[in-house]
Amino acid sequence: MTDDVAQATAARTNETSSGKETPPRDESAPALTPKPFVDALPSAFLAAERATDGGSFGYAALGDVIDRTLHASVAQLTGGLSPAAMAEAYGDWAIHLASSPGKQMQLVDKAVRKSWRFANFAWRCALQQNGSSPCIEPLPQDKRFAGEAWRHWPYTLLYQGFLLNQQWWHNATTDVGGVTKQHEKAVDFASRQFLDMFSPSNFLFTNPEALKRTMETGGLNLVRGLQNFLEDMERQAGGKKPFGADAFAPGRNLATTPGKVVYRNRLMELIQYAPTTETTRPEPVLIVPAWIMKYYILDLSPHNSLVRYLVAQGFTVFMISWKNPGADDRDLDMEDYLRLGVMAALDVVSRLMPGRKIHATGYCLGGTLLSIAAAAMARDDDRRLQSLTLFAAQTDFTEAGELTLFINESQLDFLEDLMWEHGYLDAKQMAGAFRLLRSNDLVWSYALKSYLMGEREPMTDLMAWNADATRMPYKMHSEYLRQLFLNNDLAEGRLRVDGRTIAAHDIRAPIFAVGAERDHVAPWRSVFKIHLLADTEVTFLLTTGGHNAGIVSEPAKKRGGYRVATKTEQAHYADPDEWFRLAPMKEGSWWPAWIAWLEARSGAPVPPPVMGPALCDAPGTYVLQA
């Protein structure tokens, strides 16, 4: 705090010495303290008064520090969620509900009807135990009560009552006239999270499967569960990786595709992968991963590495590996990520393979950043891109899913104070937000299996990667959230690069966009909006799976499927529902379909290019930063 006050005082001094007049002091106004008393004060208090003479610079700096420090401290307790934002949402809902007697009558009617349904179900269970059909079915994605043990009395009453109660609260928190859509979604989301805490599946004596396991093992499952809990708490307190993640490491059994780091700056390393075929396509592939993740999700184990698959199909592949930023990188902004990241990588690829156009590929936020770079290149008549591929990447954020619940002015101001304290957003904060989006899968089911059942879920390469998160620099992340998530500047033509506006409409390279049906981070209908922004050929592919598992879709594993269709420049727009109805379902991995699309837009195979001068072997040094 002293440093900030000193800086504010120095700023005032410099301003005065530069010729600017200091506002005259109002002599009629009382001094900070009577002069005789001031003379007796310690010099520190006298300095504080001098710092505030002629203005409120010192108090402004001090007040700003106090507010930011308080908000950052509270954020540590709330997981980065703003209490003010949630209070505002619940206040909006409560006020409008209180002034809507018609809605209240509907809720009373629903409560009576649900109570009658439950009483009727309980009566049927008493007469015919274990044979009554349920009065309410869980949602398709809710697997908590799928086991046969939940069909037996009295546990069937417990879970049926819980689901009816949960459904009533959904009715109570939605469709209240006058409540803003974001507040409605926030209240519904928060209420659902709170109710899920009290699900009968989370407690030993109300979970028949956990009770059965306890009887079978003589309570050893609870002993193992306690050991698991204590170990998890110890690892979390010590900043260690989750149990089992230590068995996976980049360069050892992850990110093992042979290659060299051919370029490095303060923000990223560029990896060139060694060719494995006698000939390669003349156009290289440059992959831009998100800066909030380690790049090797696209180069996991040898059997499910997209990079290795691309190289084996005869493509020269380059990959950006972002630095894990620290406090010294707090002032890196979006322009830095464009200039030192995407554009620097394009320049290196162009230097190593002169005269060749580039298949640019971006994943998640890396795809959004690549879209911005492609729009700026199109504006500047830079025609180095042969094609543009976007994996689960959004360019319009009006329907960005439940993540938008955490994006409003109050929440962003709170989050900025949290990042301001350290100079970055800690990976744990972002990981916590993502876990909340799928709390049943990532929080409660894990607790049930690890602590009540006493079982450890086997660690996989994808789970180990997910635990190897990165930080986000203060300025860059703040700009990204405000300009894109909050203001939607890219889609609405307000985003500036190098001082001039850009628009995705200017992109002329053909686009291959991939969405995932169960994506909670970049919902596929949001990704689909690229059709409305780009005035070029767009091939859209919808794969089964989620944000990560839907992208890591190796052909050797026969699971899932995909839909794909191409919209030419002259074709009419089809909305997501119509597109889904018309695009046929195909079985298996979507990777071969993308390879075929790239090959159709590539030249005839040529001898492999020479590898660039190596700084070190892949996976490089930045990916190993903790």
UniProtKB/TrEMBL annotation:
Q: Residue spans with biased composition (Polar residues)?
A: 10-20
Q: Where is this region: Disordered?
A: 1-34
Give one Pfam family, short name only.
PHBC_N
Chain ranges of the Poly-beta-hydroxybutyrate polymerase N-terminal domain: 65-103, 141-310
| Superkingdom field | Bacteria
Q: Name one GO molecular function term.
A: hydrolase activity
Keyword annotations from UniProtKB, A to Z:
Acyltransferase, Hydrolase, Transferase
Q: Keyword Lipid metabolism on this protein?
A: no
Coiled-coil boundaries: none
**Full protein name:** Alpha/beta fold hydrolase
Q: Name the species this protein comes from.
A: Methylocystis borbori
Give the lineage. Answer: Bacteria, Pseudomonadati, Pseudomonadota, Alphaproteobacteria, Hyphomicrobiales
